[in-house]
């Protein structure tokens, strides 16, 4: 997908997509065949400043529907009085913020699909990426935090609240003395394996750690536990990893090896490990693709 905005594109009806991350908002518009016509990145600062730039971007177009995937935690239960809110985020300016309400106030007639940022990425991969042809797809993003989206029988799974699999408890690696970086749980999965945990443990970002360094064995151990737990609880057809850490290609053989050892043939999985635990196929476009697909469905 690439930007190719023209005067003609501004005159036709569009689908809108927002991938709202804790660091930046990615906003895009597409035609009805989901070809992206324009896209922008907006820093996540305060709601008024960020959404002001979001509205300035979308107001240039005639919109038919919008798909939104938001950082969280969010309240995604339509029967809840706080449906559409960002809730207990550590980004204090956004805590208990009525995100969906602000969008609807600005676009009162526009159909809007609202879910988590990881759910839209999972949906994009399910429809257009590594999960094509599957019914049950687990998608993890590993970056500033860790989140999971789950496609169950072809639809986005939601409980009373969205699953927060990034905060499952994990067994500590024997060589790891790091206390954990999660402000809520310390040494949960996110606290041990997200980007901030890597940087605090090793004193540098993951992109600056060599592919053969021991850091990746420890990282793989925690992500393999996530795969094992996901397999035992949800029995997916495939587990897909996105986010910054997924760009470390040397990590995947390590995750698969650790997963196979931990699972110990207790249950069978649908494919060999190299086809069961895979990197994202759509790269950084997974979230925007999923959000546009939800907008298309919302319009229909």
TrEMBL record:
GO molecular function: ATP binding; fructokinase activity; metal ion binding
EC number(s) from the headed UniProt entry: 2.7.1.4
Keyword ATP-binding among record annotations: yes
Cofactor(s) needed for function: Mg(2+)
Keyword terms, alphabetized: ATP-binding, Carbohydrate metabolism, Kinase, Magnesium, Metal-binding, Nucleotide-binding, Transferase, Zinc
Principal EC category: transferase
Keyword check for rRNA-binding: no
Coiled coil (UniProt feature): none
Catalytic activity: D-fructose + ATP = D-fructose 6-phosphate + ADP + H(+)
Family: Belongs to the ROK (NagC/XylR) family.
Name under which the protein is recorded: Fructokinase
